[in-house]
Design goal:
Largest sheet: 2 strands, antiparallel
Strand content: under 5%
Distance between the termini: 32 Å
Number of helices: 29
Radius of gyration: 35 Å
Strand order of the largest sheet: 1-2
C-alpha cells in the first residue's frame, strides 16, 4: 500500500476495515492493478507467467466491482482489451435488465445495482471493445444506440439520464468517425449497404441496410452526416426534393414545383393504370425513386380529400332531402372505400417495416389511423340510418348529428394528415418539427388549466346556485365558456352574471322584500342589496381567475413554449434532415410503387404474377439455377476504417 494512501486511510479510520478485494487471490489483485495502471507490457508479461489463469474474476475496489476486461473496456484501452481477449478472457454480458420491459434499473431501491448497470453499459459501449468483439461494429453500435435511447425515454426522472446520453453520444461519434474515414463514393455506398450479400440489395440503388439500421435506432448523427447525404443525393435518394430544389432562384423553383405537381396530379390515374396493366421495366425503375412515390402519394391524398368532402356533403344532402343515390355518388363512395382499404394496407406495411411503436410515435401518422376510425364510424352510422329507415324520430336526429360529427372530424384528420407531406418541405418542415416538440408543454398546461377552470367555474356556479332546474347545466357551461373567452381578452361581466344567476337570484328584487314573482315557494330570500353584494363577490372571484390563470399560468405557458422552441431551434436542421432521409427510406422500402387506392390492384397483380411464375417454374423444371454472387468487400472496408480510426486516436494520445 502506498504511504499516502495509508495516511489517508488512517485519518478517516479505515485502517482496520478490510476491503472486499482481499478475498481474492494475489494474482487476480495483481492483474487488476496492472490493468488499472494501463501497463500493457506488464500485463503481457504477467499473463505469460500465469498461463491458464482465470481472467474473469470480479474484483471489488471501494465502489468499483468489475472484471479486468470490464475495467479495460471502461478505459477504452484498445491494446489492453486485445491482450486480455487473446489471454482467454470471456466476452462481457449485457446487463440483466432488459430495456424493452418495465423493469428499469431506476425502479430498484439498491443504488449499487443501478451503478453496476451503468458501468456495464459503459464497458460494452466502448469503441475498442465493439471493434474487437463484433462482426459488424456499425450495426452493433446502432443497436446499443437504440437501447440507450429507450432507456433515456423511460428515465425522465432518473438522475443518471445524462450518463445514458453521454454513452449514446459516444457511440454516435464513433459511427460518424468511421463514415468520415471514407474517401470515395463507392466506399460510402459499401458502408451504407452493409454486410449483406443479397443480390437485390447489391444491385438496387435504393436499399441500404446499414442506413435502415441507423434510422431504426434513431442514430441521427450518422444519418445526417454530410458524406452520407452527398452520396445519397447522387442516387436521387436523400430527400424527397428533386435535385433542382436546391436552386437559388426561388421563383423558378416555385414555378417548377407547381408545373410538376399539376402534371403529376393530372396524369396520376393514367400512370397508375399503365403501371398495373402494362408493366414496363423502365417505368417501374422510375417509380422506385422515392421522389416519384412521394408525389404520387401526395396527389392520391389530395384526390381522397376532395372525394371525401364531396361524398360527405352529398350523403348529408341526400339524408336531408330524402333523395335516392345517384351513380356519381356511388362512384365517389367506391373510391373512398377503396382508398380506405389501400390506406389500411399501407399502414400495415409501414408498421411491419419500421415497427408499431415507431410508426405511432409520429403524431402525423396517428392522423391516418384516426382518419380510418372516423371514416369507419361514419360508414356504420350511415348504414344503420338507411337500414332502420328512420323518419322524423329522435334516433334519426341523433344518428345524423353523430354522422355529421364523424364527417367533420374525418375532414379535420384528413387535413391533419397533410402534415406528413408538408414536414419534408424545406420552408415549413423545420417549423413543424419545432411545433411538434411544444406539444408536451401544451398538454401539461391543459391539465393545470382544466383543474383551475373547473374550480373557478364551480365557485361562480355555487355563488349563484338556487336549486336544480332545466337551465342549471346550461348555465354551468355558459359560465365556463365566459371564463374561457376571458383568456382571449373578452371580458363581459354582465353576460357572466346573466349566465350564472339562477332561480330567485336572477329576478328583479327590491331592497327589503322577498321576490313575489316566484311566490312563497321560492327557496332563497333575495334582496337588491344581497344581489349587489353577490355580484361584487363574483367580481372578486373573477379577478382571482384573471390573476391566477391569465396573468400567471398563461404567461408561464407562453414562457415554456418560448424556451422549448428556442431549445429545439438548435437541432431543428438536424431533425429536419433526419425526417427527410427516414421518409425517403420508408417510401423506397415499400413493396408497392403506387399509393392508395391503386396499391390494391398492384397487390392483386403481384400475387397473380408470382403465382404464374411458380406454376411455370414447377411445370418446366424443379431445379433452380445457382446464382453467383460477388463477395462483398464490406469486411475489408470496415477493417480499413477501424485501422485508420484507432491509428489516428493513438497518434493523438502520444502527441
Amino acid at each position: 500500500m502506498d504511504v499516502d494512501e495509508a495516511m489517508v486511510r488512517a485519518a478517516f479510520g479505515q485502517e482496520d476495515k478490510p476491503v472486499k478485494a482481499c478475498t481474492h487471490s494475489s494474482a487476480e489483485e495483481t492483474l487488476f492493478a496492472l490493468v488499472e495502471k494501463g501497463s500493457v507490457l506488464d500485463v503481457k508479461q504477467f499473463l505469460e507467467k500465469n498461463r491458464g489463469m482465470y481472467l474473469d474474476s470480479i474484483v471489488t475496489r471501494q465502489t468499483l466491482s468489475c472484471s479486468a476486461l470490464q475495467l479495460a473496456a471502461r478505459q477504452d484501452n484498445f491494446c489492453m482489451i486485445k491482450t486480455l481477449l487473446d489471454g482467454g478472457a470471456m466476452l462481457l454480458n449485457k446487463p440483466d435488465c432488459e430495456y424493452e420491459h418495465l423493469s428499469h434499473p431506476c425502479h430498484s431501491k439498491d443504488l449499487s445495482e443501478h451503478l453496476a448497470f451503468i458501468e456495464s453499459y459503459n464497458a460494452i459501449t466502448s469503441p475498442s471493445y465493439i471493434a474487437l468483439t463484433s462482426d459488424d461494429p456499425l450495426c452493433t453500435a446502432f443497436e446499443l444506440v437504440g437501447e440507450l435511447n429507450a432507456l433515456i425515454d423511460k428515465s425522465d426522472e432518473d438522475p443518471f439520464k445524462n450518463e445514458y446520453e453521454k454513452l449514446r453520444d459516444k457511440l454516435e461519434d464513433f459511427s460518424t468517425a468511421l463514415m468520415g474515414k471514407c474517401s470515395s463514393t463507392n466506399e460510402v455506398l459499401t458502408l451504407l449497404r452493409g454486410k449483406n450479400t443479397n443480390k437485390d440489395y447489391i444491385s438496387s440503388d435504393y436499399h441500404f441496410p446499414t442506413l435502415d439500421k441507423a434510422i431504426e435506432n434513431n442514430a441521427k448523427t450518422f444519418t445526417v452526416d454530410p458524406k452520407c447525404q452527398k452520396v445519397l443525393l447522387t442516387t436521387g435518394f436523400s430527400s424527397v426534393h428533386p435535385k433542382w430544389a436546391y436552386s437559388n432562384n426561388e421563383a423558378l423553383y416555385f414555378f417548377y414545383v407547381v408545373c410538376l405537381v399539376v402534371l403529376c396530379g393530372l396524369l396520376q390515374p393514367f400512370l397508375a393504370i399503365l403501371c398495373i396493366l402494362v408493366p414496363c421495366a423502365k417505368l417501374n425503375d422510375k417509380l422506385k425513386n422515392p421522389w416519384a412515390r412521394f408525389l404520387l402519394a401526395f396527389f392520391a391524398h389530395v384526390q381522397f380529400s376532395f372525394m371525401y368532402i364531396v361524398t360527405t356533403v352529398s350523403a348529408l344532402y341526400l339524408a336531408i332531402t330524402n333523395s335516392t343515390y345517384t351513380t356519381l355518388t356511388g362512384v365517389y363512395e367506391s373510391y373512398i372505400m377503396s382508398y380506405a382499404i389501400g390506406l389500411i394496407i399501407t399502414i400495415a406495411v409501414d408498421m411491419k417495416l419500421i415497427g408499431y411503436k415507431r410508426y405511432m410515435s409520429c403524431i402525423w401518422n396517428t392522423g391516418n389511423v384516426a382518419l380510418l376510425a372516423y371514416f369507419a364510424a361514419q360508414t356504420i352510422l350511415v348504414i344503420v340510418y338507411y337500414h332502420r329507415s328512420y323518419d322524423n324520430s329522435e334516433e334519426a336526429a341523433l344518428i345524423i348529428v353523430f354522422c355529421r360529427f364523424m364527417g367533420s372530424m374525418g375532414c379535420m384528420m384528413n387535413a391533419f394528415c397533410m402534415f406528413n407531406y408538408i414536414q419534408v418541405t424545406s420552408q415549413l418542415g423545420p417549423m413543424l418539427l419545432s411545433v411538434k416538440d411544444v406539444f408536451p408543454d401544451a398538454s401539461r398546461f391543459f391539465c393545470v388549466f382544466s383543474v383551475l377552470q373547473f374550480g373557478f367555474t364551480w365557485a361562480l356556479y355555487i355563488l349563484y346556485y338556487s336549486g336544480f332546474d332545466d337551465s342549471a347545466g346550461h348555465s354551468y357551461i355558459e359560465t365556463s365558456w365566459r371564463l374561457v373567452w376571458a383568456l382571449f381578452g373578452v371580458h363581459d361581466m354582465e353576460a357572466l352574471h346573466n349566465s350564472a344567476q339562477l332561480g330567485c337570484a336572477g329576478n328583479n328584487t327590491n331592497h327589503s322584500s322577498h321576490n313575489s314573482t316566484l311566490g312563497e315557494d321560492c327557496p332563497i330570500h333575495v334582496t337588491k342589496t344581497s344581489v349587489y353584494i353577490q355580484n361584487y363577490l363574483a367580481l372578486y372571484i373573477y379577478i382571482g381567475y384573471c390573476g391566477i390563470v391569465i396573468l400567471a399560468f398563461l404567461n408561464i405557458f407562453i414562457a415554456m413554449i418560448a424556451t422549448t422552441y428556442s431549445r429545439v431551434q438548435d437541432n431543428r436542421e438536424k431533425e429536419y434532415k433526419f425526417v427527410c432521409i427516414s421518409t425517403s427510406m420508408l417510401y423506397a422500402r415499400r413493396p408497392f410503387s403506387l399509393p392508395p387506392p391503386y396499391n390494391i390492384f398492384e397487390l392483386i397483380r403481384n400475387v397473380l404474377v408470382k403465382f404464374v411464375r411458380r406454376l411455370c417454374s414447377t411445370s418446366r423444371n424443379k431445379t433452380t439455377p445457382i446464382t453467383k454472387v460477388e463477395p462483398c468487400n464490406y469486411d475489408q472496408l470496415i477493417k480499413k476504417l477501424l485501422y485508420m480510426y484507432f491509428t489516428e486516436r493513438c497518434r493523438k494520445q502520444y502527441h
